[in-house]
């Protein structure tokens, strides 16, 4: 997991930032990116692709990463912006913002497959980087823990969709709730299952004299 980092250190790099994002596939909520500069003298055991770790293990590792890394940051790009610029560009934006927020400026970036030419810093885009680089894996872990916490909060705000369990991903429970309850303000309207429901709601709302962007959930919150 430290092979890429060690190779860069031999070339004279001192601050190597791993960056990754989570949340491309969900129908609701933001995409979240993490950036981490690990301390080469303090290797953290157990870092891996966040998807291959249990929630409990991710939470433990996130604490260790934040405590022992040279620098770390997370940033979120909202569902509204995802709809406006598409998920690929939103993921790139989240990564760039996470890098910019680091308290230590990196001299090389390792990203999980995402080209980052606009960063103005040398970078290496690694396919399956979260499984091959400790820095990228660490970034994926803190981003995943951050996004899961956000979706747990959304589960309280918007009950009935199972956000605490599905984190916004299109599970049968979530898709059924979309059909029964309609969309919420945190749903991504450009994603197909949501778009279908949104277009139906828009048609019904306009026919009943409502506002096209108001859902049952948003009307309930406003009232």
Instruction: Give the percentage of residues in beta strands.
Output: 5-15%
Order of strands across the biggest sheet? 3-2-1-4-5
Helix content: 40-55%
- Topology, number of strands: 5
Main β sheet profile: 5 strands, mixed
Rounded to the nearest angstrom, the radius of gyration is 19 Å
How far apart lie the N and C ends?
52 Å
Supply the CATH architecture of the largest domain. 2-Layer Sandwich
Task: Give the rounded overall mean pLDDT.
Answer: 91
Q: What gross morphology would you assign? A: elongated
Order of helices and strands: HEEHEHHEEHHHHHH
CATH class of the largest domain: Alpha Beta
Structural features:
223 residues; alpha/beta; Nucleotidyltransferase, domain 5; 2 domains; 10 helices; disordered C terminus
Explain what this protein looks like in three dimensions:
This protein has 223 residues and is of the alpha/beta class. It has two domains: 3-155, Nucleotidyltransferase, domain 5; 158-222, no CATH class. The protein is 49% helix and 13% strand. It has helices spanning 3-10, 55-68, 79-85, 87-101, 129-132, 134-157, 163-166, 172-181, 192-207, 216-222; strands spanning 16-22, 31-37, 71-77, 108-111, 123-125. Strands 3-2-1-4-5 form a five-stranded mixed beta sheet. The termini are far apart. Residues 212-223 have low confidence and may be disordered.
